């Protein structure tokens, strides 16, 4: 993957509500580039000595999902990214999490905006598709997310979809589109230098396929 004109490393953040398809895309995209990939569900469980595939069914803001534990998780991810960029000279680092709070998105810009190009990729799908994905996930023993319908509703209630992110670039994806089409859209977005004032980019309308 070619460098940007600025020769800066890239921090690529896939974010959105539970079952939005962000992890599916983020893992595929990171794997193809052999770059570090940090999923907030995995990092959270690692911090508390849990198997990433263990299911945690505590209620909202309980167990490992309290506000303080969430802050610890996001701080740990910042620490890992700092090591990758500053000590390991990584060219690309991929993050995967809800990043539903503006403060957490802004923190990434504040921490890394001076030494990396930052790309946020907002992933979303319809509620009908969300229900289907959550039902499939409940049967998947390898799933690392503890997402359930009540988690989706909780996240949605406090999630304001950004129209732009100051200091970063924003791509909006409908993840009901074909995965290969979406991955090519991410490639084009990350590989193209910014021209003038950034605006959110949306994928073209087209036929949809399940994740």
UniProtKB/TrEMBL annotation:
Transmembrane annotation, as ranges: none
A Pfam entry, by short name: AAA_33
Entry-linked InterPro entries: Cell-binding_unc_protein, P-loop_NTPase
UniProt superkingdom: Bacteria
PANTHER family linked to this entry: GLUCONOKINASE, SLR0207 PROTEIN
Name of the protein described by the UniProt record: ATP-binding protein
Species: Desulfofustis limnaeus
